[in-house]
Amino acid sequence: MLDAVTETELNKSLKERVFHSILFEVVANILIALMLAVILAVPVTKSAVLAALSACTAMLWNVIFNRLFDAVQQRTGFSRNLLARIAHAVLFEAGLLAVLIPVTAWWFNVSLVKALALQIALVAFFLPYTVVFNYLYDFFRLQWVNRSRGAER
User: Fold this and answer.
1) How far is Cα 18 from Cα 34, in angstroms, rounded to an integer?
2) Backbone angles phi, psi at 11, to 5 degrees
3) 104 has a pLDDT exceeding 90
4) Which DSSP category does 78 fall into?
C-alpha cells in the first residue's frame, strides 16, 4: 500500500515538513506528559523545561533527518516497508540521543550514565511511536494526495 511511493509523494514542502514535525511532537509530548504524571509522579516544572527543549531539538532534527532520508530513498529507490521504517526510527533516535544525553545530564545534574538510562526509557517509547506515527501520517497523506489528484481531474 505505502511501499510504492512516487517521487511526487516524497517531495514535501518545508511547510509540510514543519507541520509533520510539530504534529509529531505535540502528540508525543501529550502522551509522555500523561504517562509521566501517572507512572512516575515527577515534578512537572523541571521535566517540562527539558521536554520543551527536547521537543524543539527533535523538531529541528526531524526536518533535517527526514529530508536526508527522503533524498537517500530517491537515490536508491528502496521501499518504505517495515524494515525501512524501523531503520528510519532507529537512525533518527540515535542522532537525537547524541545531542540529548549531555543536555539531560547537565539539566538534571546527573551522570552521563544516568542520563543515558533516562534517554533509553524515552527511546523505548519513541521507537514504536515513531514507526506508528510515520506510517499513519504517510497513509493519511497518501489518501489526501490521491483525493486532491482526483478533484483536479
Assistant:
1) 24
2) -80, 90
3) no
4) -
